[in-house]
Specification:
The complex is a heterodimer of chains A (265) and B (272). By secondary structure, chain A is an all-alpha fold. Chain A is built from eleven helices and no strands. The chains are: A mainly alpha (265), B mainly alpha (272). The interface between A and B is large, with 39 and 43 residues.
């Protein structure tokens, strides 16, 4: 078991190194990727800064608290972009062109390869930007206890698992439907629901976003851990949910593969 | 002259028809694009505006009531779907990067017109289906909507789409030199996300930024047509929109044609 784990860790580090070298090869693309996320950050910040010029609260958070929410969003999103995004984004293309065959034929878990083969190393710069924004926004809070940041050690990986699981289902659906570009764009819309605080939604919608389509877990729960007194039932939910979702993605992948007919032959 | 124009028109109608048939072939994909995506965007934005109005002490924001913002959120999602080009821009870049463009440049047609006609055909078939939804929703929920303004607003949006395609052409011309530039598309579309007014009505931005952003051609994608339909802007803004898009079209076409020419000159036909 340990030797298998070691093999996968070594494999991941090799793939990460290869990704970094490959990313640096196309320097203009490398720097534009960083710029792209800066635009995205600006869009999020500007939206809320402008809205808060016309209101005191959105949901139950004021502007300073919303900045913390956005800081967490940027950090969690940056981790997702570095480790997972590019792999799942390209999966439908691999299915259409038959490149999936090469991954399925390798003597490693196909879900592991599909998820982690390529790291997007340019986004490390964005992680620095996101972290800077979070520190700035936490500094702006009147009575913040920095010990609460420890919650992130537990909740940030859970958030990452939730994004991964949901995105994986959208990407893997390409194996079933063959052409699903717009289904991939649909993921973006679902993800946007999680980019807003859960308290903004009505109780039924909030419940749906925390359970059935759990994008509300991604940022809202870690943000609450930092901003509000701890509600342990609320905080333990991502820890329970994460292994369930990982198991379900595994089952879904097995199911999707039953529809796969190689395109390269 | 007359004959060559007829051939040009026939050819481009065939390209548009090709795009319509191709996109209708994958029905789920089409259904998601034309119906599900804009409905979801509308829902998300409406929830945001309800949240904003719940937290404000005033019944109006910047002189407009809640209904105006709900109407804006409803229409903006649908116009934004028309005014964006992801799929065709990625394909154009891919043609240049992979070398499959070889099979297109030897044909008696322009690369620009080939993809423009396809884009317009695809957007046309998406629009006629998806626009039914905001019309019904506006009528049912009695949201501010001046229905007779919809044709002119749609026309401006489609005119702006030609500008969007020209920017796509410009981006793909860069692919002759830089090979891997897919992130340019994402960066550009994110920038347009703010500049078109898709995220929020541009009139909420404080001065002097507000006037400057509204005077840019990008406002013709979402803010001006949606503002015109929902009664936020009057006819003079629409005239300004048509003029600014025309100026931008001339300038960007000149730059894009120049880049395309020097790109083709340096192109070595990687896919050959």
């Amino acid at each position: 078991m340990i030797s298998i784990l070691k093999k996968y860790i070594l494999l991941y580090f090799s793939m990460f190194k290869a990704s970094f070298i490959a990313d640096l090869e196309y320097r203009a693309n490398f720097f534009t990727r960083i710029l792209t996320d800066v635009f995205w950050y600006v869009a999020q910040v500007v939206t809320f800064e402008i809205l808060y010029q016309h209101t005191d609260h959105i949901g139950d958070w004021n502007l300073k608290q919303m900045r913390v929410f956005l800081g967490l969003l940027f950090i969690i999103d940056a981790f997702y972009m570095i480790i997972i995004h590019e792999n799942l984004e390209n999966l439908p293309e691999k299915v259409r062109k038959g490149d999936l065959d090469l991954l399925l034929a390798k003597p490693v878990n196909s879900q592991f390869m599909i998820t982690l083969q390529k790291a997007n190393t340019a986004i490390i710069g964005n992680l620095v930007l996101g972290t800077s924004w979070l520190i700035f926004s936490l500094h702006g809070l009147d009575d913040f206890s920095y010990i609460r940041l420890l919650w992130l050690l537990l909740l940030a990986p859970c958030s990452l698992i939730v994004i991964y699981s949901m995105r994986f289902v959208f990407s893997a659906s390409a194996v079933i439907f063959t052409r699903s570009e717009n289904l991939q764009f649909l993921w973006w819309q679902v993800y946007r629901l999680g980019m807003r605080p859960d308290s903004m939604y009505n109780p039924i919608m909030k419940w749906i976003l925390l359970t059935v389509v759990p994008v509300g877990v991604i940022v809202s729960i870690p943000a609450r851990a930092l901003l509000n007194p701890p509600n342990y039932f609320y905080l333990i939910w991502p820890v329970i949910l994460s292994p369930i979702l990982i198991y379900l993605t595994h089952r879904f992948w097995k199911f999707a593969l039953t529809f796969y007919s190689s395109a390269s032959s | 002259m007359k004959k060559s124009f007829a051939v040009f028109l026939k050819r481009n109608l065939a390209f548009a028809k090709l795009a319509i048939v191709t996109n209708l072939e994958y029905r789920l994909n089409y259904f998601v694009d034309a119906i599900v995506q804009p409905i979801m965007t509308t829902g998300i934005e409406i929830l945001l505006w309800l949240g904003v109005f719940a937290g404000t002490h005033s019944v109006t924001i910047n002189g407009f009531g809640k209904d105006f913002y709900l109407s804006y959120a409803l229409w903006a999602a649908f116009f934004a779907r028309i005014a964006t080009s992801w799929m065709y821009e990625f394909r154009m870049i891919e043609e240049v990067s992979s070398g499959t463009i070889n099979s297109l440049i030897v044909r008696p047609m322009g690369f620009y017109e080939y993809y423009l006609s396809q884009l317009l055909g695809y957007k046309f078939i998406t629009t006629i289906i998806s626009m039914i939804i905001p019309i019904i929703a506006s009528y049912y929920f009695k949201l501010p909507c001046i229905y007779e303004r919809i044709p002119l607003a749609s026309l401006l949006c489609f005119y702006y789409l030609i500008l969007v395609h020209t920017i796509s052409f410009l981006v793909c011309s860069v692919a002759f030199h830089l090979t891997k530039i897919s992130s340019f598309t994402v960066a550009k579309n994110l920038m347009l996300w703010i500049l078109t007014g898709e995220l929020f009505p541009l009139d909420l931005i404080p001065q002097p930024w507000r006037s400057q952003l509204i005077s840019l051609p990008f406002a013709s994608g979402v803010y001006l047509p949606v503002g015109y339909i929902s009664g936020r802007v009057d006819h003079s803004y629409m005239v300004h929109g048509f003029i600014s898009v025309t100026i931008a079209l001339v300038i960007l076409n000149l730059i894009a044609s120049w880049l395309w020419k020097i790109g083709l000159r340096s192109y070595s036909g990687t896919g050959a």
